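Protein Entry — a single chain follows
Fields — amino acid sequence, structure tokens
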Amino acid sequence: MMTSCVLSLLLLFPFVSSIMASAQPAGCKIRITDRGLEMLKFETQKFVEEELSNISMPEMKGKEGRFQYTITDVKITELNLTHADLQFIPEVGLLFDVQNSSITLSFHRRILYWFFYDTGNINASAEGVNINTVLNLIRDDDGRLKINNITCDAKINRMKAQFSGTLGRVYDFLASFLTSGMRFLLNQRICPALNHAALVHVNSMLETIPVRTEVDKYIGIDYSLIDDPVVTSRSLDMNFRGMFFDLSHQNDTLVNYAVDPVIREYDRMVYLALSEFFFDSGMFSYYTAGIFQMDIVNEKMPKDLEMLLRTTYFGAIMMLNPALVEAPLSLQLAVNSPPKTSIKTSGATVVMTAIVKVMVLPPGQPPVQLSSMTMETKFNAKVSMKGKRLAVHADLRRFKIFSNQSALESLALIPLQAPLKTMLQMSVVPLINNWTKRGVQIPLADGMDFIEEVVEYHNGFIVIGANLHFSKGLREMIAGNIETEPETNTV
């Protein structure tokens, strides 16, 4: 039973957090609190009821005195797990506990007594049903969350049957004998059913959630666990590497020198913590993939900026070749070092430095450089989350340019500051947001989403607190994962 409970959690879990420091800091953490567990309990209970309803019982044959009997078509028609609880077991995993609940069954009888033959249906009820299931959660060799072991104990205290048919009252005394056998068999079937659901179905579903997956055609992300999950009486915490990588250099690993995120809250169902390393690795991967480069020419060049460039570099063009006065101009922008993220309690910023070259484009000839300048920019970064996707929106905060050739030319560039800033806001900032607004998907199961998110900024990391929403039941979520092959974007 714990089975499904874990399942729910597990669905969440290719990425939960730990408060304890690992050998290496985590780039990404997630915490599931006891409030989240309380919500999962309802879905877990439904799943367990459905799982136990599918228990198959063998045919029973035997002889008792003058009676010969055969019991077939045993079916569980109703489960009433009214007293079910789901809780954390510190340093172990999860406990799903059922006390004093009931199970209703029906089966078909064939009974021979002397020369009398009788058939009919029997309705039976098992009462005092107690099931105690503990799931042990670990990190496997691939960095996935896995159910390593399940401990299950099931007991049915009493069972009674109601006979119908011609000789119903005559052989009521058989009821105690038959129900004892049925109770024994049912006791023997409950734990294997739950073990199979947890160790086969749930683990198979977890294997379909990639720990390394593509974000887009340039970069991927590594969500592998860096240590075993940490279970306390109030939460399930897990640490993830949380590192982006360039798809063309998938084996490159960045060293995480960032602050280890800390989650202190328990008020919401789930918390996601992300360090500066998480964002810096993304920027580094985009940088090495070469997307932070662009040419601004022709219709991409604002007319007022083009006119100002021609005025500023008119002398240089005339000295180069007067025939090029009317030749097209272009700006070549190339970020010359990986952008860096800074997260403070006041918010998040990204610093980016680029080389800007002013080029004249002679018809039919290679471009000619007129000037080279350094552009220093600082962006405000707003982090948001919707459903399963984490996104970042950038706004230009500070802008500065200076010449790479002389201090005198830097003075001459002052008139270009305003139009270049406008150009950045119109061309470069949308380019950055075009990639970051798509966001990265948190590896939750289909049918589970974050809602009512609140983002908090701390020194060195952010924490997103949220509640959970299920658009699908656990049975549907597991079935969908089992039937669907893993996406081909696994790398």
